[in-house]
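Notebook p. 47: complex prediction with thymidine-5'-diphosphate.
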Amino acid sequence: MQRIIVTGGCGFIGSNFIRHMLTQHPGLSIVNIDALTYAGNLENLRDVESNANYEFQKGSICDREFIERVISEKPTDAVINFAAESHVDRSILDSGPFVQTNIVGTQVLLDVCRSAKVPRYLQVSTDEVYGSLGAEGFFTEETPLAPNSPYSSSKAAADLLVRGYVHTFGFPGLITRCSNNYGPYQFPEKLIPLFISNLLRGESVPVYGKGDNVRDWIHVLDHCRGIEATLLRGKVGEVYNFGGRTELQNIELTRMLIKLLGKTDESIRYVTDRPGHDLRYAIDCAKAEEELGWQPQVGFEAGLQETIDWYVANQDWVERIRSGAYRSYYEQQYGERLA
Ligand code: NAD
Ligand code: TYD
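Predicted complex, C-alpha cells below:
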C-alpha cells in the first residue's frame, strides 16, 4: 500500500493508529480527514505533523464533494473509517449528530469509495452493536446485532450499510468490532481518562449505578495492530472481533485506579445510572487470532500503569481540553477559527 486515508484521525484511536502506521510502514502516505468536532484534537498528532508522509485535511465525512476531492487527488489504496460520534452519554442527550456522522457519513464514504473504485474499505466498529450480555457467554462475529443505545444503534446501522454494499455491489468492505479501549490521548469524558484526571486533581469519580457493569478492556495499540492486520490480511466481507480478555466490573477498575493514584475509596461518588446501561460486554476474538495471526500483547496491569504515567506526564494536555484552549491550536496552524 502506498496511500491510505484515515478518517477521524484526530481522535483517540485514529491518532494512535496514524502514529503506529507511520512508524511501522515508513513508505506509506497517510491522509487524515477530520472535522475537528469537540473530540478531535489536532494536538494529538503534533509529533507527526512535519512527517512528509502525513497530511491533514479538515472536513466532514458527510461532505460528499470534499470527500470526492480528497479521494481523487491521488490513487488511494484504502480508506479506514474511524470518524464517529463515540460517547454513549452524549447520544442519550442528542442522537442527531450520531445519525449524521455515524450513518450518513458512512454512506457518503461507501458511495465515494465505490465510484472511485477504492480497493479496500475498513469500517471501525464496536462490540456495542451486539447489545448486552448476562453473566455468561461472549460475543462472536455470528452474534446477532442488538444495539441498545442511540450510539450503538447508529454504529450497527453503519455496519449493515457496509454489509449491504458488499453483498449488492461486491464492494471491498471489511468490519472490525472492538471492545473498550484505553491508553494515551483518550478524551477525558470516558471512564479511564476522566477518573485519572479527576483523581489527579483531588476530585471525586462518578460511578454509575452500583458499578457492577462489566467491560472488556483492550490497550489502544492492540486495537491498532488488529486494524492493521485486518487491513493487510483480512478477507473482504468479513467481520473481525477484537478484545483484550480483561473483563472488569467498573467498581473493580475504579478501585484499581484509586489505589494506583494513592487515593482512598472516599473518592468514589455513586451517581444515577445511565439509562439503558448495558450490563456486560465480553469478546471472543478467536477468529482474529486464528485467521489474522493477531493477539493482544499489552497486559492490563502494565498497560494501565503506563496509561496513568502518560496522563500524569501530560496533565497540560488534559487541562487544555478542560479549558477549551486545545481548540486554538488549529487557528495557530491554519489561521482559521474553529466554530
Ligand atoms: P473519538 O471520539 O476520540 O474520535 C472521533 C474522531 O472523529 C474525532 O477526531 C472527531 O473530530 C472525528 N469526527 C467526528 N465526526 C466527524 C465527521 N463528521 N467527519 C470527520 N471527522 C469526524 O473516538 P475514538 O474513541 O477514537 O473512536 C474511533 C472509532 O472507533 C469510532 O468509530 C468508534 O465507534 C470506534 N470504537 C471505539 C472504541 C473505544 O473504546 N473508544 C471501541 C470500539 C470501537
Ligand atoms: P465509557 O468509557 O463511557 O464507555 P462505554 O459506555 O462505551 O462502555 O464507560 C465505560 C463504563 O463506565 C460504562 O459501563 C459506563 C461507566 N461510567 C461510569 O460509571 N462513570 C462515568 O463517568 C463514565 C464516563 C462511565
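Notes: The first helix runs from residue 12 to 24. The mean pLDDT is 98.
Next step: compare against the earlier run before touching the bench.
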